[in-house]
Every structure is written in C-alpha cells, then in structure tokens.
Here is the input.
Amino acid sequence: MRRLLLLSFLGIVLIALAVSTVPFALFLQSVERDRLLTTLERDAFVLAGRSEEALESLDADDLAPVRDLATDYREAGGARVVIVDTTATVVVTNDSQENRVGISYASRPEFAEALSGVVSTGERYSDTLGITLVYVAVPVFSGPAIVGAVRLTFDRAFIDTEVNRQLTGIGLVALTTLALGALIAIVLSRTLSRGLKELDTAALAMAEGDFAMRARDDVGPAEIRALSRAFNDMASRVGTLVETQRRFASDASHQLRTPITALMLRVGGLRESLKPGAKNLERLDAIDAELSRLNRLIDGLLTLGRAGSQEVTREVIDASEVSRERLESWTSLAEEAGISLTAKIDKGLLVSAVPTAVEQIVDVFLDNALSVSDHGGKIEVSVVAEGAQVVISVSDQGPGMTPEEISRAFDRFWRGSSGYEGTGLGLAVVKQLAEASGAQVSLTSRAAGGILAQVKFNAPHS
Ligand SMILES: Nc1ncnc2c1ncn2[C@@H]1O[C@H](COP(=O)(O)OP(=O)(O)OP(=O)(O)O)[C@@H](O)[C@H]1O
Ligand SMILES: [Mg+2]
Here is the structure.
C-alpha cells in the first residue's frame, strides 16, 4: 500500500514535470531569441558606428580596419557580419571561408529595409547556407544620409542548443528535488506506518482474545502515539471487564450448583423414605425433572458465556470417535423410549473445532430428536466427509418445523410448540460453538417429515 502511494506520487510529479517542460521550453526559446536579438542589435549599431567613415569613402585603407574589427568579433564568438554600401554590394564580411566582397545582396529583404533607414530583425531561411538564420540589419548613417548597412546573422540552431543546455540544467535540479522529495516521503511514511503497524498487531491480538497485548506508544507521530495510548487504555479496560465477567460466571455457577445438588440429594432421600407406588413419588419425579432442567440451564448459560468470550482456541478433534461415543450413551435412553437409533459413521474423520464443540452439538441434536420422536420413531445419525468438510447429520421423524420456526430456533430461550420441556438454549449453544469452530449449522425440513439437523466442520488446515 505504502509502495503504491509512493509510486503514484512519483508518477504524478514526473507527469507534471513532463507536461510543464514543453511550454517552459517554448518560453525559454523566445526569451533566448529576444536576448540574442538585443545583443545582435547592440553589436550591429556599434559596428555601424565604426564603419561610417569607411562606407563614406569606400576606400580600401579605410575598410581594412573595419574588416579586422569584424573578424576579431567573429573570432570572439560573435555573429557573422556583412556590411554593404548603398547599392547593397558587400564591402566587408568576416566569413573566413567565403569572400563575398563585391557580390550584390540587393535581393535580401533585410538589406532593402535597412538601406531604407529601418532596423530589420527576424528569422529567415538562407538558401545559400541551407540553415535558418536569425538576423539584425541596421542602416549606417552619416549625418542624415544612409551610407550603407550592417547585418549580423546567427544560426538559429545556436538558440536551440542554448535552450537545451538550460533545460538540461533545470531538469537535473528538478530530478534532484524529486529524489529528495521521494526520500522524505519514504522516511515519513515509514515512521507513520510503523506506529500503525504496531497498533494493527495489537488490535489483531485483541480480536483473538489476547487482552494482555499492548501497542507500542513511543513510535510514530504524536497523533498515532495518542491513538496507541487510547487503544492500550481500552484494551486494559476490556481485559478487566472480561476477566470480571468470567469470574462472575464461574462463581455464579459454583454458587448455583451447590444448592441444586443439595436439593437433588434431598429429593433422593425423600424418595427413599416413601413407599413404592406412593402418590407423592410422581411429584418428586416432577421436582427432579425441574431440577435437572435447572442444571442444564446453568450448563447452557455457562457454555454460551465461555464460547462468547472467545477464550478458547480450535484444536484437531476426531469427530467420528466423539460422535460414536455420544451415540453409545444415548442408545439406552432411545431403547427405553422405543425409538430406533441407527448410525453411519465413517472412521477417522478429523475436524478443526473448539474443545467439546463436537460432543455438545451431537448431544443437542440427539436430545432434540429424541424429545420430538414418538414411540416407534426412527433417528439416523451420519458422520461423513464432504470435500474439505466433515458433515454430522441427525435426522428424525418428528413433527418437523415451519420455516419461521427454523429461523427462530437458534435464538436464546426460544422454544417451539413441540410440547416437550426444554430451556430453549440447546441450539443457541450449538450456534455459538459452531461459530467459534468456524463451522456451519443448519436445520432442514425433511420431505418425509421430521427435521434434518446438520453441522459442517472444516477439516484441519483446509
Ligand atoms: N428436531 C426437532 N424437531 C422439531 N422441533 C425441534 C427440533 N429441534 C429443535 N426443535 C424446536 O426448537 C426449539 C429450540 O430447541 P433448543 O434445543 O434450542 O431448545 P430446547 O430443546 O427447547 O431446550 P434445551 O435447551 O433443553 O435443548 C425447541 O423447543 C423445539 O421446539
Ligand atoms: Mg434442545
């Protein structure tokens, strides 16, 4: 993420640089051209002043110093000079390769203009040289009379070279600035992201139930440190709260169980004191049933509390083995009730689940199925692999449930119209345990009547 941000930042700066380069180059070109023309014009006037006398006399002795001056000027890096008389015939040039003295330049528009008393500047393609020239032509006055003209020319390519040289310099400065900017951005984003990373690690640990984890609050900018401190405060408060709640739950369970066990013992004692067939025996059975329901209620509430607090971690469990064991302990109850309990359990199917999840879920499914089954009913249990999952199914031939009932069945304390005495917590516990185990649980109406209760666990490392 950070790398992406940095790359887009560099990309945007590079595009901005590239886009601004074209107009900037054009601007530089026009500035450079104006600067050159001003210099040329100044030099042309100086040369015009120096050649006034020579042009008046057109004497070779007078022209010689002017030619020397022009040659020196060229050698010092100056422009090409052509001086003409009033007929636009060349009298002096500083071109060492070609002596054009005596040739008429009357056809050149800039000379025509200069000889008419006007300063002429501009660009023109020279057929003679095959290049674009930048020129300045000025008239040479002797008093009010024009005695000739001086023209200075430069190769236009010179301007381009100069502009390129300046652009390269500016480009280097820009790239250095960009590199420095990127460096600062990297350093800044590192410090920023380091603090956030610490916070992220702590938040993840807390999400997994580790309330002792603290984020470092001495790295990153002030805002992130403040955030880390606030997070740590919150973590310690939540930790204390969870611990208090957990302790309360276990204390409450202990406190409640003791009197219930005592009550059950007393009921047992009372039962023994009664004669067989006594009428009050039925009442005692009812009290016993209520007491076991109370016990189950406490168990359910405690399981819900524990599973909700996420203090449990998943482990590898042999679902086949656990299901078979649970089935065995329910068999005698089923037999007594005249209900057939059959099973198809594939061997050695391992699942990833929180401890006791498999047995508790199988228990709740079987408990419900038995509760709704009539004498002669049939309950089928199966444990099979399905792709990377292990599916435990319990199907019964009971009254079944409407879609509306199915959608509410996992709510805490919700009990349907099936008529048996439940606490309404069984399936709520199943849902919590399944969620904590990363499993999916479902109730489906069977076409043949009854309910198919299923839980799908993930195989370990799937
Ligand atoms: N196999 C089933 N067939 C028909 N109804 C069912 C079945 N399983 C559950 N139910 C309905 O869903 C309700 C909720 O079930 P749940 O197991 O959560 O609670 P309970 O069985 O009432 O109480 P307990 O906490 O003792 O299990 C039940 O009261 C029952 O009406
Ligand atoms: Mg139940």
Q: What stands out?
A: The chain has a mean pLDDT of 87. DSSP finds ten helices and twelve strands in the chain.
